[in-house]
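Example protein
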Amino acid sequence: MSPSTALADHRPASQHGFADMLSADDFKAAFRNHPAGVAVITADVGAGPVGLTATSVISVSASPPLVVFSLSSSSSSTPTVKKAETVVIHLLGAEQIDLAKNFATSGIDRFADTSIWSRLITGEPYLPQSNAWMRGRIVNQMDAGDSTVVAVQVLQVDLPRDDERAAQQARPLVYHNRTWHSLSESSVMA
């Protein structure tokens, strides 16, 4: 019986010869070969802006527009984001790698360079250079292991409109196997 067939019969995994517990290192190693888009999430609950780089942002629904992302319990930004009513999710392109690195670095003032950020009229900190950003209201949170999964209903989207062709050709920033990558026309397979 193949593992996929064994899972279909709904017996506990331990009865199929699978390990009862998977190490965190093995789990991380499995995901190293799964590329992910790069985003920066920002928030402010009144004590100053916080932000973090995330590769866990996914769309869930178009109607209503919902996205989810996860927060590591070890991130210094997590307590503020968990208290926030709204967040801004910035989708980054290859040209914004400096933003990704800045918001992924621990122990620094990620907002020290005031030329990279501003505030929306609604008060949230945002990064005008990002390929696109979405302002949304947190509608649900769920503790999951050493992380928190956050669901956000998107209220506003800002897309580059100056040159639509340039916007369509923007090279996405991707994180794969602990390194930054850029997708381009040469990476198209079909």
Summary: Helices lie at 3-8, 24-32, 78-83, 97-104, 164-168. The radius of gyration is 19 Å.
